[in-house]
Amino acid sequence: MTYRALAFDLDGTLLDADSVLTPTVLRALKIAGERGVKVFLVSGRMVPSMVPYWRQLQLTTPLVGYNGAKAVRPPDPPLWSQTLPIALTREIIAYARARQWALQVYFNDMLYPLYDLPFNRQYAEFARVEFKVLPSNGELPTGEPNKALVVCEPEDLAAVTVEMTAFIAGRAEVVTSSGLYCEVMPRGVNKAVGLKHAAAAEGLTLAEIVAAGDGPNDREMLEQCGVGLAITTGDAELNRVIPRHIPAMPDGGVERVLDEFFGIKI
Question: In the CATH hierarchy, which fold is given to the domain comprising 5-81+189-262?
Fold first, then answer.
């Protein structure tokens, strides 16, 4: 099989521990691009948080944010966008408020936390985005959100996820990421779905893509692409179900991927 593209999760996969693209990764992907290899960024992050990396890599491929709920080539309109129904969104907000969960909702590429909590401020700083606290009177921004997310202490994540899954009862997708986040996406949405739309815009199929990721929210993408690579330092369950493993890109993974699947030596 001839592979024509790479798809990378960001945090824990392409970025280093400080959420930075290292010089080695930048150089390697520049060379890959010059050899005709397309690169897709596929993340649970909101689109504005992904754009700086997309620009730094000088990409023109659509990026995929919100765990696959949006595929877009900035600054153009989205190629693909799915949202949570507003009625369900209101239910999620009310449920989280009753439990004082650190919920945040993503309307129109803007971050709206339920409370002004340290958790939410830390997330906004990490994602390098601004935020607006949701009004306590129940008024919501216009439109529908691409996803909602509860920021958890690591020791609380499993319990919150079990409870949220039971509450959602199949009306949306619930997945964890980064050992901190319980995420709720539109029904039927995952990273593979969003990447499929982004790839089609470049004349590609998932079978022509080598994908790498480290979290439970990467599973469908790794299973459905031509090659799926689980990051060795990532989620233990993902490493169990995905047979091929590789170090994170800053730790030698990028050289191995380019050499093994594209014949490019860095």
Answer: Rossmann fold (3.40.50)
